[in-house]
């Protein structure tokens, strides 16, 4: 007979959103089961984000899982903008009462959250996909690829942008706001020590280039490339030629090394509203995707988990009968998500080169110069930018 487990919250997806929620629920003595289609090796091999907002670090610290983050990660306090042969450094920490980012690779965050949950005795099932979701008024049932099922009072869909949870939401219930950006990025990781202790965003007539820290020996680079280009059009030699040209500054040297991963990025943004459907919640990339400029995706995913844990705790305290109390999850998360979308969009348009064959390209390029000028000349503008970049303060209580 196929095995069935009953729990309180079934969490589909062991990425940053799902594992953060699992740890938070577990810390409150709440039962949950986390399932992921990836096995441990696949899960810990996904090198993606690396910029942790102040509140994300605070959340991981509150879970008691920040030891490695503080030992191996780096505090990231500012960012350099290069354009038209000029460069300027914006010290976000100085503008935001000492607050900063931490640079720590996403796969290490996932490793720490996974270890924390497993060590605490959490039920984590890796290498088994959720295939079908049946959500009713009294609870949810998730059918797994190994023939077993997990039943729960609630389902947390933290299964990324291509997961099954969002797809299981009946048509007509949710609104998906989506936009495709007019830019395309080639993103790569190179075995090369960072060439500066901070992020560099370069606006260049040949297109945007980004230099982002990951570790002492690995650097992430982004390159704006023509829309429609395939990875094959970008052999390593061409990549380095472009990076050298676009990031160039007199007296500064770009550290180069073997390229260890190279991908075209789908430059799309999406928000699903609302983020709750009866007993099903969407978290992280399942609920929203955001252009990678500004490094917000993983941070929003963890912030969703924090809010959902908080709303579920409040629901129980109020007697656990009134499902409409759970609407707070969407109500509290959406303003933050849209704020991040707006910031990411503004940063994208501050640093990219518009297609010169379009009618308004020259005008938009000058608007861009104005934004960069304000960033260096107006403390109020720079402070607002710093607050958005470092992110809002953590939710306490
Ligand atoms: C190149 C790149 C750079 C980025 N840089 C940054 C950055 O600097 N800062 C930042 O904050 N964000 C960044 N992001 C975005 C960030 O990586 C994502 O927003 C983040 O991974 C979202 O976390 P998540 O937990 O919602 O989803 P995911 O990390 O996608 O996790 C979803 C999990 O669900 C599992 N799953 C899917 N379907 C099923 C199923 N049917 N059954 C069971 N399990 C399933 C998957 O295996 C996966 O483990 C970047 C993304 C990319 C691609």
- The CATH class of the largest domain, by name, is Alpha Beta
Outline type: globular
pLDDT averaged over residues: 95
Tell me which CATH architecture of the largest domain applies here.
3-Layer(bba) Sandwich
What ions, cofactors and ligands are bound? flavin-adenine dinucleotide
* Helix/sheet category: alpha/beta
Q: What does the largest sheet look like? A: 7 strands, mixed
Query: In angstroms, what is the radius of gyration?
Result: 22 Å
CATH topology of the largest domain: FAD/NAD(P)-binding domain
SS strand fraction: 25-35%
Tally the helices: what do you get?
Answer: 12
Description:
It is a single chain. This protein has helices at 16-27, 40-43, 54-62, 67-72, 92-95, 106-119, 164-167, 236-247, 297-317, 328-351, 361-377, 379-390; strands spanning 4-6, 9-12, 32-36, 51-52, 74-76, 78-83, 86-91, 101-103, 123-126, 130-135, 140-144, 149-152, 154-157, 175-180, 184-190, 199-203, 209-213, 219-225, 259-265, 268-273, 276-277, 280-282, 288-289. It has 397 residues and is an alpha/beta fold. The chain folds into two domains: 4-76 and 101-180 and 268-353, FAD/NAD(P)-binding domain, CATH 3.50.50.60; 184-265, 2-Layer Sandwich (D-Amino Acid Oxidase, Chain A, domain 2). The protein has a seven-stranded mixed sheet, with helices on both faces. Strands 9-3-2-13-22-21 form a six-stranded mixed sheet. It is globular, with a radius of gyration of 22 Å. The protein binds flavin-adenine dinucleotide. Residues 12-18, 35-38, 43, 48-51, 106, 129-130, 158-160, 163-164, 187, 284-285, 292, 295-299, 301 line the site of flavin-adenine dinucleotide.
